[in-house]
Amino acid sequence: MKTHMNHEEQIQAYGKDVIETLSSMVKWKYDDFHKVMLAEFSVDKQDQVLFTLQQFFPMCWDVKTIKKAPHETKHYAGAFSKLVKKQKLFSINIEHNPKIMAVWWPWGHGATVSVRLFLTNTSPYVAKTGLFRKLTRIFA
After folding, report:
1. What is the pTM of this model?
2. 140 pLDDT more than 80
3. Where are the domains positioned within the chain?
4. pLDDT value, residue 84
5. CA 73 to CA 43: how far, in whole Å?
6. What's residue 5's pLDDT?
7. Strand partners, 91
8. Residue 13: which of 43, 33, 37, 34 has the closest Cα?
């Protein structure tokens, strides 16, 4: 038995419930380039898929709200926290140290949407301290 799981196996393990639940609606494949579990589907399925994602990941951010998201959220999401247009980032409550998050990724032409499940950044979150942080806290 292997003791060390690769990227794909980790996502499949942590995302097992959401992957299985959505498998009736979408086909999953592992995208080695982005290191994500990827599902691409036509826009007519988006309401069902979105509803299902929200059951597993109650926290959701978009291009406007991500600016106000906790710093930990952006830390965990890494590059996936840089959202554009209609993209959304899904997570469980950040205090529970999410192992995976999901990104909602509508395609430019509007007929297709993709969902990507990814492993969160595992390096420990270190709060940025210093003068700027103190000033922003005073004026927040």
Report:
1. 0.85
2. no
3. 7-139
4. 93
5. 27
6. 85
7. 59
8. 37
